[in-house]
Automatic annotation (TrEMBL):
GO biological process, one term: methylation
CDD domains, alphabetized: AdoMet_MTases
Gene Ontology molecular functions: methyltransferase activity
Protein name listed in UniProt: Methyltransferase domain-containing protein
Keywords recorded for this protein, A-Z: Hydrolase, Methyltransferase, Transferase
PROSITE patterns documented for this protein: NUDIX (PS51462), NUDIX_BOX (PS00893)
Listed SUPFAM superfamilies: Nudix, S-adenosyl-L-methionine-dependent methyltransferases
Length: 375
């Protein structure tokens, strides 16, 4: 979870940290917007803490997987709520761990209560959990919002731009108030990726840009939610005689704080299209190595940056059109139904960038074992 390392969460729960109790407005909204199906349902609570909400959901007819990254939180939950019927307590970092302990059975309800702001890659995590929902299932978020949170506690809240980013790509988004808290009800986790242009059209005889495609050690690609209200890759126009590789490396540093060498940048393809009648040439630059810590140096342009799973790129929602085409150039087919573009693949072989998430590695190994055992 973002901002607070696991060790600090462990110590906080050991010291007796107490979060706000479940309010009457929240109970009412849960009953109205996410009741258990007839005959019972299955729910997942992320960041369950000492278990008040998990037990409430179980009493309402759900079988509940209550997960937290702090074992100390689960120890308190088990001690404070002994024999809680219908609740399974699981230690799991939902952002970074392999979700294997959750199993493959789908959920009717996934809930984040007072936990969302501590997730770094929130949109990625929400869409991944959305794929674990049954048809018609609900993802429900209860969170403080910046407008009603004191400045010294702003890190536990989200603002409207952040809410726009994490709800992009969902088919149904509804927002309610529970006192000073916002309650978001999301359904339909993959509304598709919509390639859009910026509000201000291009001008001049032509436009060129270099977009940087950067992945983390788990193979996730870096995208930023811009103040134009869309996902974008790091990048921009070359300066003077600057090469596309150099421009991509420079823009990556200026926009995200990540550092790379020009020798580790490779142009994979040149994409030619037009926007508003202005010809446009976009260089897709794959960066194979980088260093530094991800930040947001240009906060006036980007709300925040996140790492996204390539197989989830088709569910992003609003995405800058050149970025969507660049992503499709690297992972063909991951973003369906894109407008036509003329691609000029570069002669240089693409760089090898070995990386795989824990879940992908486990599933690949399981597939190999199944094939071997079948022989």
């Amino acid at each position: 979870m973002r901002f607070v390392p696991q060790e600090q969460w462990e110590q906080s729960y050991t010291d007796g940290i107490v979060f706000g109790p479940l309010g009457e407005d929240e109970r009412k909204l849960l009953a109205e917007r996410a009741p258990a199906p007839a005959g019972g349902g299955r729910a997942l609570e992320v960041g369950c803490g000492t278990g008040e909400l998990a037990v409430h959901l179980a009493a309402g007819g759900y079988r509940v997987d209550a997960v937290d990254l702090a074992e100390a939180a689960l120890e308190r939950a088990r001690a404070d709520r002994p024999g809680a019927a219908g609740v399974r307590w699981l230690r799991l970092d939902i952002e970074h761990d392999d979700p294997e302990p959750l199993g493959d059975e789908l959920y009717d309800l996934v809930v984040f209560r007072l936990a969302l702001a501590f997730i770094g890659d929130r949109a990625r995590v929400l869409h991944a959990l959305g794929r674990r929902l049954r048809e018609g299932g609900t993802l429900l978020i209860v969170t403080p919002v910046a407008a009603t949170t004191p400045a010294d506690r702003r890190r536990i809240a989200v603002d409207d731009r952040e809410i726009s980013a994490l709800t992009s790509g969902w088919k149904e988004v509804r927002r309610y108030a529970a006192g000073d808290l916002a309650v978001l009800v999301l359904r339909g986790p993959c509304a598709g990726t919509v390639a859009v242009e910026r509000q201000h059209p291009l001008t001049g005889p032509a436009a060129t840009a270099a977009l940087a495609v950067v992945t983390d050690p788990s193979g996730r690609v870096l995208l930023g939610w811009s103040h134009h209200g869309m996902w974008e890759l790091p990048g921009g126009r070359p300066s003077g005689p600057e090469s596309f590789e150099a421009a991509a490396v420079r823009e990556l540093a200026e926009e995200t704080g990540l550092l790379a060498e020009e020798s580790d940048a490779t142009v994979l393809s040149m994409l030619a299209d037009a926007a508003g009648g202005v010809p446009r040439l976009t260089a897709v630059v794959r960066i194979s190595r980088w260093s530094g810590s991800l930040g947001d140096p240009e906060a006036d342009r980007f709300a925040h940056w996140e790492w996204h799973d390539p197989h989830g790129l088709g569910c992003l929602g609003r995405t800058f059109a050149p970025a969507a085409r660049a992503l499709d150039a690297v992972w063909p087919g991951v973003v369906p139904d894109l407008p036509a573009v003329r691609a000029h693949p570069h002669a240089t072989p693409p760089p090898a960038v070995p990386c795989e998430s824990p879940e992908a590695e486990r599933r690949r190994e399981a597939m190999v074992r199944a094939v071997v055992d079948g022989d």
